[in-house]
Amino acid sequence: VHRTIFAAAKEQGRYAMHGVLIELAEDAIKFVATDGRRLALTKSPLDTRSMPPRRAIVPTKGLSLFSRVVREPLANVEIQFSENQMALKARSVVLPEKEGGEPRVTEEIEAFARLIEGEFPKYATVIPNSSENTVEAEADLLTRKLRLVANVTSAETRAVKLSFTKGELEIKARSPARGEASARLPVDFKGKAVDIAFNPDFVLDGLKNCEMTPVRLEFKDRQSPGKFKLGEDYHYVVMPITVET
């Protein structure tokens, strides 16, 4: 849940984007959230042999509640759908202190959420399936440098430019009120020298949930979406911003 819920829409607008899309199909469960400017998608294996394919939009409030009350480690999680409602059931366990002991179920939790009606965006069309530029960077270092440079941006100029050359990334930003800032860090970059600009808040939201290092970014050019790989079967797509050169 935490992998995707942050990317759901918060402003007034298309009601369907105020929830997380859950898809059951092809022996996997997918969670997808988008606000139209970024998209988070994660997939996990699931035994769906006894279940028909299903798509449902679940409110973020219901999923947030479930993630707060669930305790780790879990024995299993069960998902059930009715026509307009989803039920999540989880069993928490205590692991055995001695090797060979049996785990003990300590808590059973149930949460229910009414499904959102409406049509979720056709998200597959915005996920890049090819790229001309790939970069890998140490996630913590990229986060620190990005936060440092983003400090000079304002609500009106909320953008940072990432300039890639062989072996190096330069992050730059400027605003009339706060001046300019830049930072450099080593990266593994494959492609021709290129730059692309993003809203730093969106990139930092993704890095906050990153589960691997180095983090990987793929994009075609400065006008195309950037696809971040944040973990196994976990992708985050961010739309670029046009800035003055």
**How many β-strand runs?**
16
Helix content: 10-25%
Task: Give the low-confidence spans.
Answer: none
Mean pLDDT: 88
The fold-level CATH name of the largest domain is DNA Polymerase III, Chain A, domain 2
Gyration radius over CA: 20 Å
Order of helices and strands: EEEEHEEEEHEEEEEHEEE
Shape: globular
Summarize the structure.
With 245 residues, this protein is mainly β. The chain has 3 helices and 16 strands. The chain has 2 domains: 5-125, DNA Polymerase III, subunit A, domain 2 (DNA Polymerase III, Chain A, domain 2, Roll), CATH 3.10.150; 127-238, Roll (DNA Polymerase III, Chain A, domain 2), CATH 3.10.150.
Structure description:
This protein is mainly β and 245 residues long. The protein folds into two domains: 5-125, Roll (DNA Polymerase III, Chain A, domain 2); 127-238, DNA Polymerase III, Chain A, domain 2, CATH 3.10.150.10. 13% of the residues lie in helices and 44% in strands. It has helices at residues 60-69, 139-150, 200-208, and strands at 19-25, 28-34, 38-45, 54-59, 74-81, 85-94, 104-114, 133-137, 160-165, 168-175, 179-186, 188-190, 194-198, 215-219, 226-231, 234-238. The chain has a nine-stranded antiparallel β-sheet with strand order 4-1-2-3-16-15-14-8-12. Strand 15 and strand 16 (234-238) form a beta hairpin. Helix 2 packs antiparallel against helix 3. The longest helix has 12 residues, at 139-150. The radius of gyration is 20 Å and the shape is globular.
